[in-house]
Amino acid sequence: MTFRALVSNRHEDGEVSSTIETLSDERLPEGDVTVDVEWADLNYKDGLCLTGAGGLVRNYPHVSGIDFAGTVRKSADARYAVGDKVVLTGWRVGENHWGGYAERARVNADWLVPLPEGMTTRDAMIVGTAGLTAMLAIDRLEAAGLVPDAGEVLVTGAAGGVGTIALSLLAKLGYHAVALSGRPEHAESFTALGASAVLPRDEFLAQPDKPLESARWAAAIDSVGGKILGKLLKQVKYGGAVASIGNAGGIDLDTNVLPFILRGVTLAGIDSVMQPYGARVAAWSRIGETFDFGGYSALVEEVRLEDLPEAAKRILAGRIKGRVLVRVR
Ligand code: NDP
Question: Which of 166, 168, 299, 306 is most exposed, with minimal Cβ within 10 Å?
């Protein structure tokens, strides 16, 4: 009845370290569904939680892992039966509730989503929060009027989890996606995902800064924030929209109101964590119909629970390409 978990502890000097422990069910938090976790993944936020950076985790000992997929082991909720395949992302699981870096998890049934038809638990964690967020961003841009023949869609932080999946989804949906990256050496991977062009970050930032710049982008999906988001807003075409999903480059936004009042640009914020159930189910279903898992396989790195502390440092240093999948059992 015991299970393995990667348990993090904070020491007196403030350092956080994580080790594999064997636990029993009494250690699981409150919840109405117990899941045998098969796969988890590594997101930027997991890097913060595992290293203690950003102060996201308040209570130790802690099990990180903001996403997981597995099979229901026990359920006190009528919506889930033993043996059902489920996926969980967000709801602050892995931050203030024990997460997916353990062979077993116990959660609130409201947080789960049934695995879409034809998707494996491994597939679901290739997608994870990153893919869900990319899909929600595209949905939002389309709701703001984006259509494939509107022009180029810029994807920043292109080598990251959200960036690579966004490039792939956009290409499958018929959009002209342009990859903006600080690592243009990965250009081949971007074009293999369907990007129509690659823009090196240095080149983009070196363009002279003006209050309003030449309009190029029909839309953009931005993982970076900071200077990159500030500058790209000035280059969005009349009536275009930008989905702001992340802050890998900083939380500041240095821009001005001209893109909004002279070009009618929309800046749409995307949050995947607290998305209501209906929106999650719809997004997972569209991912299942759209995402090219085969075409993405070269961008998947597989690790085990014990490898996570090292992988966490790499994701925070911007040295991960694509998605890190965690084989939990
Ligand atoms: P990754 O670490 O996989 O990717 C982030 C990418 O951003 C990197 O690959 C790099 O791309 C770029 N980048 C990193 N550091 C910098 C920097 N200092 N300046 C400019 N670019 C940088 O993270 P994810 O894709 O998982 O997440 C991206 C962001 O989105 C994070 O901030 C994350 O917290 C946030 N997020 C938000 C969600 C939401 O619900 N709103 C959900 C998921 C993630 P390259 O090398 O190509 O330039």
Answer: 306
